[in-house]
Write a structure and sequence with these properties.
The chain is 41% helix and 18% strand. β5, α7 and β6 form a beta-alpha-beta unit. It has 4 domains: 309 residues, TIM Barrel, CATH 3.20.20.70; 27 residues, no CATH class; 60 residues; 122 residues, 2-Layer Sandwich (Double Stranded RNA Binding Domain). The radius of gyration is 25 Å and the shape is globular. The protein has 18 helices and 14 strands. The longest helix has 23 residues. The N terminus is likely disordered. The protein starts with 8 loop residues before the first helix and ends with a helix. By secondary structure, it is α/β, with parallel strands linked by helices. The chain has an 8-stranded parallel β-barrel, surrounded by 7 helices. It binds 3-methyl-2-oxobutanoic acid and zinc ion. The site of 3-methyl-2-oxobutanoic acid has 9 residues, from β5 and β6.
Length: 543
Amino acid sequence: MAVDFGLLPSVKFLILNLELKMESLKFDINGGLIMAQSNRIYLFDTTLRDGEQSPGVSLNADEKLEIAYQLARLGVDVIEAGFPIASPGDFNAVKKIADNVKGTIIAALCRANQKDIDKGYEALKGAEAARIHVFLASSDIHLKYKLQKSREEMLRQAVESVKYAKKYCSDVEFSAEDAFRSDIDFLATVVEEVIKAGATVVNLPDTVGYAVPEEFGNFIKAIFNRVANINEAIISVHCHDDLGMAVANSLAGLANGARQVECAVNGIGERAGNASLEEIIMALYTRKLFYNKETNVNYNEIYRTSRLVSSLTGMSIAPNKAIVGKNAFAHESGIHQDGVLKEPSTYEIMKPELIGISTNNIVLGKHSGRHAFRERLKELGFVLSDFELDKAFENFKDIADKKKEITDEDLEAIVADKAWAIPERFSLEYLHISSGTNIIPTATVKLAIEDMSFEAASTGDGPVEAACHAVDKITDIYGKMHRYKLNAVTSGKDALGEVISTIEIDGKIYTGRGLSTDIIEASVKSYINAINRHYHEKHIYNN
Ligand code: KIV
Ligand code: ZN
């Protein structure tokens, strides 16, 4: 069933439920369920769970909520919000998302035991539609070395856990971890039995990214051929990208009967990551004649979703990344440019506008008022509250004073720079740097704390380090810089510098962002932003 993109999320959600119900009503003449005829593919987004398992990524509950709202706007069918038993922070984030984000199914990951499932349901119970996602490994390698269980024990535990989860929730997904490397006959038995136990979705992951596409397609087909009750559940694929084949494998799974695909924005996730959500969506759209599948996404939210996830996780996007990389739609060679000017389809298989990339060249500057600023943001699709708009406008004015032209890319960075979203215990008032060849870099920093100012000076191996040491002296919080990323938002000498740093404080990782035309200032702001996150978490969340 094709759904109008303009529909409200809750209406879309009702339609999704209706679609699922209609499918489950398709009986054949013998009374058994026939294979679902619909070509609708369900998108299960795991950016906030598997994606957050990317090394160095740590999102707080508010950041996760913001991403979840955006995923709902994008129109994914399921948001896997986290792994509630993993930590109190994870629990709170899943609960916050379940309580607030409507129009999509909210899932929580649980190991196959009662304690995990109890905790998972506790976090999910406020959701408009909840799914408990239970997983247990089925491959001999995992059974022998990780779980020290026999196949029989695994099967029993899988079935019991699905039955237990069913007491709480009608929608239960079972994942056979490392399914692709499992014995196919044993896996088929597991799938059949968990469906009998009530699993509505059975996920068959390539956990270690070992498969190649033709093989993975055949693997899904083999499961369909072996499992008698396969059409009573939706079969899902979840592919990792260790050999760079996660998207191709996922698509091969969909071409062979899987109806749900698990993926993450920008392909983030464990190790080399998960299948990239935007690549799957656009492959299904662009190659519709080949795949003949439907999704329910709002295509023009793709780019914004990608940028938001990149900015909040601090994981930048390679310029040549398909769909959302800076160069994805740039034509450099003369022959290509000539061809595109004559007829875009010569070298262009997708339109950047479709995924929400603006091709409008309007620029704002220091004389632009609040109205023009708001209108441009609206055209770019940003939905800001009055408070957020005021804060973003203040930021815009500061930057416009130093930079002649503010482009759409600058505006995106300004909106994404939500230093104010975390209460600013410490804010930068003044920064003086003395640095050069053959002198020891020295920094003097003045920070505002409530309505008082504190100043400190320090040295370092470079000007950024000197300034961070001075910040440490004032805050008495000592951060260790793990990752430092400086990105020029646009080209030109007056380009905005965007710094994303990941800082370890008391054994936890915090991501900070800073934006300025001065890269040392952007660096210090990003460091202070991470410290404010730490302070806020320690003193506000823990109260
Ligand atoms: O990769 C994997 O197998 C997983 C499962 C927990 C679904 O992430
Ligand atoms: Zn995974």
